[in-house]
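Exercise 4. Each item below gives a protein and its sequence. For each, produce the structure-token representation.

Item: Short-chain fatty acids transporter (Uabimicrobium amorphum).
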Amino acid sequence: MLNNFSKKLCDLAEKYMPEPFTLATMITFFVCAIAVLFTPTTSTQVLEYWYKDFWSFLPFSMQMCMILVTGFALSTTTVVKKMIRYIARWPKNNVQATFVVSFISIFFGFINWGLALIIGAFLARQVAIEGRRKNISLHYPILGAAGYMGLAVWHGGLSGSAPLLLATKGHFLEKFTGIVPVYTTLFSPLNIACTIILLIGIPVFLAALAPRNEDEMVTFCEQIEEEDDISSAKSYVGVFLGLVGCVYIIQHLWIQQKNFDLNILNFSFLFIGILLHRDLDNYFHAVKGGVKACAGIILLFPFYAGIKGIMVHSGLAQNIAQAFADISSSTTLPIYTFISSGITNFFIPSGGGQWIVQGDIVIQSSQQLGISTHKATLAFCYGDQWTNLLQPFWALALLEITGLRAKDIMGYCMAVMLVGIPVFITLLYIFH
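Answer:
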């Protein structure tokens, strides 16, 4: 029954799912039309809002490109390749492979979304390589979907934007909430229960969807071959440079106890990669190999930044959040917050940016209805992360690394998303 369910969704995705650039263009035109029809915004203003923010993701785009190229370079070092290969050898069949890849991806998704993005993609790829090497039939599209699952759980994890912002002194909602320690949000009974359910439930469900018959499987793409080890020891200048960077990482995280954000993640990938490659020429060669994976990010991120500009400056995003808040009661507000956050995420695929747009409405509405700050915040987080499964924005990096298309993985992602919605609603209803 589950296999038939997933097969129908996969068939729908294969038939109707546009490529990411086409989808971004379609969303742009749709948001333009909605903004003109439902807000006091003229078509000329919409174009101005679109261009105003069109380049606003440039710093973030560069960060994402750095995640890809430094993560790619790190993955080509002998030490990391051995570690990934070791894990990739565990599965003995397609069901086990799907479970292992999704579990590892989700585990790292709770630690840091950037780590999950890279590790999930490379692990899916390596598991498929090992399967081909051992002549085990593995369904590559579901492995790709499994490697993407870390982005479906990240906002309730240690790198979640909204909980971390609330815990930061001087945040924009401090006059309403004060400083909200992460133990009241990320380590609340609600989030602990949700974390356990997702960590176990998603891999089990995806494994149940995994095809059993060989004639149903799409195996590893033949054109994607495993890179040869390129690390050697021509000189040790790289070792010294890598050590210098690692000393700063230790100082930043353990001595100064600063946050583990996207910049320090990229810095860590960069200098640990240099250290493990040892030779700077080898490292430069590895980085060049990863640059091609940035094409989708370079092209599409400006268009999503433009969509965000229309949503924010026209007031459309705030209107969506306010509409759900207006029809809510103390029982339904968390559920409606989850839904409105999920809808808005499809147009503003940035957790931190979306919280800046919606956070004020979420917090003030919850206080008026007597709902705890942590529950309202987590409802927002769950909605934001969950519709990543329908939004190929974050999957671009994985698609480039694995060589898969969005339509290859989206059927399985949609199946997980649809089944998970009642789970979140139930948790938000039960926990106070």
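Check: The first helix runs from residue 2 to 16.
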